[in-house]
């Protein structure tokens, strides 16, 4: 017995020693330098893009951004074209920025709300077949959204009919109300992952808490509001950020469900149109990219502590 | 923890759920604002009277044309909109080919689409998605375009829409000043062209430059080269057979034509002026392909008329300017087949206002009005050459209007997409990168869709 336990302790301390060594080597000076080098390498392309966005058109088209240091020429012309040009198919980023915001905010809040409700019900409301439903929702993540584009589009434009009987009418949205289509689509596509993430997080909560609340006479609504929501806030924030970045950067769903006009199209659609019919105006893309990156950058930087905390949601206990 | 502890935030979520139910439950459309068309003065509107009044009606147009060209379109039809009272919603997109398919399948097609590929138009026509053009549109198209053009939008004897713009592809760009300085003459036959290339090469300048890089469409400029030469080698009828796959892609005649192009594009003595060896063609962006001409590092560049937009700022495009183009000669100077491209205006709806727009776009009035605003080429016979905005447009229109011209559409836009926008591009890129002609053509032949 003693020999066995001593070997156990030896291996344990050995493992601890290894972890210690890893930690030590990661906090050493060389590791720091390596980290800085990697960070620099990763930032270089972004920095080059940024510098390019400030260079004049003929410079962008003929030389690389690094020539800036030998021959510094700066201009805000690209940004002017991108943001304030009145041409109907280039520029006007400002109004598309608003469209992007109008699309993104509901497309984040709807799935967040639905997923939280669904995850609570699946985790803490006992009913028959809930595991099956949960597995079903989980499995839906495998379905690529590209497969759903055409059916969803015909759902909006033609409604649903089975054997010739119209079950649901067509939406027939026009103009600004087409935003509803995009919200609907994004919500559909986000729910499987959202429910999965939040369910995992919620089911980790200690059952005693919920039982105690129920003994005190709390209903599901009260438990959800007073107990669950505050506890899963980091997970909600993490999923919210994921969803925000996904919707903000999405081109495909926006293009198909919002169309390409200034009335409803998000910024990504405009970015894709901006290079001109034959791609000869690509100098605008650098500036356009930076305009579109600003908002996610603000969101990410202001909420990153939730992001890191929430990344671990559902993956590790404690 | 603190993010959602406040009851107000819970209310926010509850509120958004309510909103979602509203949005999902009743998707009624907002009352549409009436289009601002109060007629205009009668004199101004007299030319548009024949299209009728379509007060408050809307027509959507979906097209791959964007940016400046799209603005000019809209400016052109603004008086038409005003006088007929309708509103044209124009949408230009870079993903036309994929998106139009999704939209049509999803039951949400535009009213009108500008198809740059007759092959795509044919697919939609055969699927029964397109509406045949009205009698008026057909009459206008027959009057204004040659049969070489209208046959591309006539599928199984049904006419689907008139052509719109055009571009001429059979051009070789050169520098008139450079030619004058060195005493070179514009070649009239293929042999003269090759002799000229030898002369230029002997003078220490690589005569040709080219670039076929174009993102996921890399290779298309090389396919234009092949088509242009093939059209000269086997004649328009042979070309039609090849496009329709009645002549195999790896037929000895095609091999011979491709090798003829290879004598230029795969000859290290002749290419790639200003860029490097043969393989640099594959990595040079097509937009940049001819630019070395302006620096005197290259003398010739075969590319379509629209290349006029790609010269660096300040380059004068004219017969006596910095750059200009001549017709890519064939073996027989008497025959001048022209390779080109263009768009066709086909409709997914047959409402009266949609047909009115189609009819208006098929008129010479439209083409002339558009040309007055900026660079534009149309094969419309009613176009007044005096309206051409620059010498290259003028040259293109002259070529298209010449009754002796035999026009053929860019073959890769007519073939099945798997070949015309797939293996043909890829095969030509491999060919530039060193694969031999026979292997490449066998590969393309085998990729032709069966049935």
The total domain count of chain A is: 2
Mean pLDDT of chain B: 88
CATH superfamily of the largest domain in chain B: Periplasmic binding protein-like II
How many structural domains are formed by the residues of chain B?
A: 2
Number of helices of chain B: 17
**Cα-atom radius of gyration of chain B:** 25 Å
Q: How many strands, which pairing sense, and closed or not: the largest β-sheet of chain B? A: 6 strands, mixed
- Give the helix/strand class of chain A: mainly alpha
The level 1 CATH classification of the largest domain in chain B is: Alpha Beta
Strand content of chain A: under 5%
Name the shape of chain B in a single word: globular
Which class of the largest domain in chain A in CATH terms?
Mainly Alpha
Summed up, the helix count of chain A is 14
Low-confidence stretches of chain B: 1-39
Strand order of the largest sheet of chain A: 1-2
What does this 3D model show about the protein?
The complex is a heterodimer of chains A (318) and B (451). Chain A folds into two domains: 2-75, no CATH class; 84-311, MetI-like (MetI-like fold). Chain A starts with a helix and ends in a 7-residue tail after the last helix. The longest helix of chain A is centred in the middle third of the chain and has 32 residues, at 93-124. Chain A has a two-stranded antiparallel ribbon. Chain A is mainly alpha-helical. Chain A has 14 helices and two strands. Chain B is of the alpha/beta class and 451 residues long. Chain B folds into two domains: 42-168 and 340-408, 3-Layer(aba) Sandwich (D-Maltodextrin-Binding Protein, domain 2); 171-339 and 410-447, Periplasmic binding protein-like II (D-Maltodextrin-Binding Protein, domain 2). Chain B has 17 helices and eleven strands. In chain B, the strands form three sheets. In chain B, strands 1, 2, 3, 6, 10 and 11 form a six-stranded mixed β-sheet that branches. Chain B has a three-stranded antiparallel β-sheet with strand order 8-7-9. Chain B is globular. At the A-B interface, α3, α5, α7, α8 and α10 of A face α1, α3, β2 and α4 of B. Chain B: InterPro entries: Bact_solute-bd_prot1 (IPR050490), SBP (IPR006059). Chain B: Pfam families: SBP_bac_1. Chain B: This is Alpha-glucoside ABC transporter substrate-binding protein.
